Amino acid sequence: MEVRYSGTVSTPPTFFSSRHTRRTHEQFDVRADDGSTFRVIDNVSIAPRVPARPGDRVTVQGELVHDRGKPPIVHWTHHDPGRRHVDGFVELGGRIYA
User: Fold this and answer.
1) Among 22, 29, 38, 94, which is least packed by CB within 10 angstroms?
2) In this structure, are residues 88 and 29 in contact, taking their beta carbons and an 8 Å threshold?
3) What's the rounded Cα separation, in Å, for the pair 3 and 75?
4) Whole-angstrom distance, CA of residue 88 vs CA of residue 6
5) Residue 52 host element (H or E)
């Protein structure tokens, strides 16, 4: 399901290599304005790294995925080079990272 949330970054970004794609991703948690919490997972092999820090305000558009027992994630927060998926983004400080 495609979503768009605005909220406040609550954890510093960490980086990892995806088990599926072997590409580098960053992740950070956001507390949305509605009080919900979710994890942003952004493929930095496709989109530029988001220089987010705790306390920063962001708007995130991507695909929401629920993984039972874990916080929901929002991924596909970047453009799709294959043009098969809706483009997502992270907006920080008036700049769009996609």
Assistant:
1) 94
2) no
3) 10
4) 13
5) none
pTM comes to 0.90
Q: Over the stretch 12-64, which tens digit does the pLDDT of each residue have? A: 999 998 777 778 999 999 999 999 999 999 999 899 999 999 999 999 999 99
Enter the DSSP assignment of 61.
Answer: E
Residue type, 14: T
CA gap 97, 38 in Å, rounded: 18
For 35, other C-beta atoms within 10 Å of its C-beta total 7
Neighbouring CB atoms inside 10 A of 87's CB total: 14
Tokens (6 digits) for 49:
């790294």
